[in-house]
Amino acid sequence: MEKRQELYAGKAKSVYLTDDEDLVILSFRDDTSAFDGEKVEQLSRKGEVNNKFNAFIMEYLQQAGIPTHFEKLLNANEALVKNMEMMPVECVIRNVAAGSLCRRLGVEDGMELNPPLFEFFLKNDALHDPMINEYHIETFGWASAESVAKMKELTFKINDLLSKLFADAGMILVDYKLEFGLFKGEVVLGDEFSPDGCRLWDAETRKKLDKDRFRQGLGGVIEAYEEVAKRIGVPL
Ligand code: TMP
Questions:
Q1: Does residue 100 have its Cβ closer than 6 Å to ligand 1?
Q2: What is the pTM of this model?
Q3: 16 and 29 in contact (C-beta within 8 Å)?
Q4: Residue 197: CB within 6 Å of ligand 1?
Q5: Order of strands across the sheet that contains 171-178
Q6: Which of 181, 216, 180, 187 shows the shortest CA–CA distance to 199?
Q7: Which atom of ligand 1 is nearest to the CA of 197?
Q8: Which of 30, 44, 114, 210 could form a disulfide with 195 if both were Cys (CB 3.0 to 4.6 A apart)?
Q9: How far is CA 132 from CA 21, 46, 149, in A?
Q10: Which residue is closest in CA terms to ligand 1's atom 7?
């Protein structure tokens, strides 16, 4: 398999074409971004930690019957994934109130959300990822009604699987964001799952073990990611 030219560079990952049109290489950089690219820093080892963390989670989900784009780890910073047509929407589930939900609705940070909340956001940094609903997605053609239903179904299934995985390792999966794409007509989980795109708190102390450490300048960002990885058994 041959690595070819860069297809796309995001805020933290780059995508490279390969000699197989169905496969691309996802390259995890050390760049760390928050507030839609307003705050960007390089954090040593982040690319490697997130690549290996993501590989572990994607394989875990795949084994549980969730279709994912993940094919295999290539090296410390790169993974081979399916070349998908990404849908420009972000699927968020919240089990505990935090972040933009508290700012938007004035609810107390840390409040348990039962049943969990599901929210769609438009993937658009210039517009600061505004919250949207299913009608926006259909009217503007960002995804079909069928794909919307599938994304919701998969995001909830993933919530059951990952909430348990982290709970068994002494952590609370507060919230997370997923992105999906279409591969040969099927809705498939894409992008990444890592502490960059979720909130994880220690179940006892409620210590933040995710990108909020970076957003809030708490320090120990990668050390926290490594701690989570170690607790769930990610080989780093
Ligand atoms: P929020 O509280 O900022 O709306 O974010 C909810 C969760 O989704 C949190 O774990 C961070 C994640 N998220 C991203 O990683 N990227 C995004 O662009 C958005 C909107 C959320």
A1: yes
A2: 0.98
A3: no
A4: yes
A5: 131-132, 112-122, 89-96, 171-178, 198-202
A6: 216
A7: 15
A8: 210
A9: 32, 30, 15
A10: 176
CA of 161 to the centre of ligand 1 (A): 19
**Residue position matching structure tokens 């081979």:** 80
pLDDT at 192: 98
Query: How far does the centroid of ligand 1 lie from the alpha carbon of residue 213, in Å?
Result: 14
Report the DSSP beta bridge partners of residue 17. 24
Q: How far is the CA of 71 from the centre of ligand 1 (A)?
A: 25
Query: Long-range contacts of range 40-48, CB-CB < 8 Å, 24 or more positions apart?
Result: 40/11, 41/214, 43/214, 43/221, 43/222, 44/222, 45/222, 45/226, 46/12, 46/196, 46/221, 46/222, 46/225, 47/12, 47/76, 47/77, 48/76, 48/77, 48/236
Structure tokens, 223 = 């050390």
Backbone angles phi, psi at 144, to 5 degrees: -80, 165
pLDDT score recorded for residue 116: 98
Cα–Cα distance between 234 and 54 in angstroms, integer?
9
Residue 181 Cα distances to 19, 185, 234, angstroms = 21, 9, 25
Q: Is the CB of 25 under 6 A from ligand 1?
A: no
C-alpha span between 83 and 177 (Å, rounded): 20
Question: To 5 degrees, how large is the angle CA 14–CA 19–CA 21?
Answer: 80
Ligand 1 centroid, distance to 54 Cα (angstroms):
17
Q: What is the pLDDT of residue 228?
A: 98
Q: What is the DSSP letter of 127?
A: G
Low-confidence ranges of the chain (pLDDT < 70): none
Q: What is the distance, to the nearest Å, from the Cα of residue 134 to the centroid of all Cα atoms in its chain?
A: 20
